[in-house]
Structures are given as C-alpha cells and as structure tokens.
C-alpha cells in the first residue's frame, strides 16, 4: 500500500493515484480543477477545537505528540472510524496521496492518517 502526503497547492503528479483532501475547509485560492481531488472525507478531519488548539501552540513540533493523541481519540468516534475504514479500503486498491493545506504536512493530521492507513492500526 502506497500512501503519500503532499501539500494540496503542489501540482498533481502522475503517481499521486487517488488524491484525498484531508482538510475540513477547502483551501483558499485553489480551484477544484487545479486541485484534482477525488475524495474529501470531512469526517476524518480534526475538530475545529483541536485545530485551533494546535495552531495556538508556539512550537508545533513540541505540541505534535499531544495533538496526535487527541486526534487519534477523535478518530475513534463512530463516524470517523467508519470514514477511516472506507478510506483504508480505497487506498488498498492502489496508490493514494493525502493532500492538505498545512504548511508542514509532516507535523499535521495528514501524516497521522497516512501512518494509520499504512500500518493498519486503529486510533
């Protein structure tokens, strides 16, 4: 299973496979034609409260583990767990790219999702 994480503002590449937007809000200044997003499972996005908390932290790298713990707890809720299962099935069929507007995708919810998808782990 191949799951990549990229910024949604980067041009799509042929080996992206299925492009999945994993942000709650559509990225500003980006048309749907340019983004080439195939799926947009909003149930997998962090809650507004969690996003605001994480963005308010002075050092995202220091706060990442706590963010990850809280986000995985949110993913255990029934609606999110169902959406995670559906996404896992989708990415098992071929390459997939999780796209996000986060400035640092490696320290975002997209990387948490990618790790859960690849490992098959549960939040």
From TrEMBL:
Name of the protein described by the UniProt record: DUF488 family protein
InterPro entries given in the database record: YeaO-like
One Pfam family, short name: DUF488-N3i
């Amino acid at each position: 299973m191949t799951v990549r994480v990229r910024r949604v503002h980067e041009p799509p590449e042929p080996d992206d496979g299925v492009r999945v937007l994993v942000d709650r809000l559509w990225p500003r200044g980006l048309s749907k034609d340019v983004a080439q997003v195939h799926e947009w499972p909003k149930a997998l996005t962090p809650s507004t409260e969690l996003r605001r908390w994480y963005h308010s932290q002075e050092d995202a790298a220091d706060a990442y583990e706590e963010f990850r713990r809280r986000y995985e707890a949110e993913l255990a809720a029934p609606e999110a767990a169902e959406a995670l299962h559906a996404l896992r099935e989708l990415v098992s069929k071929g390459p997939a790219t999780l796209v996000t507007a986060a400035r640092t995708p490696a320290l975002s919810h997209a990387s948490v999702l990618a790790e859960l998808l690849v490992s098959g782990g549960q939040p």
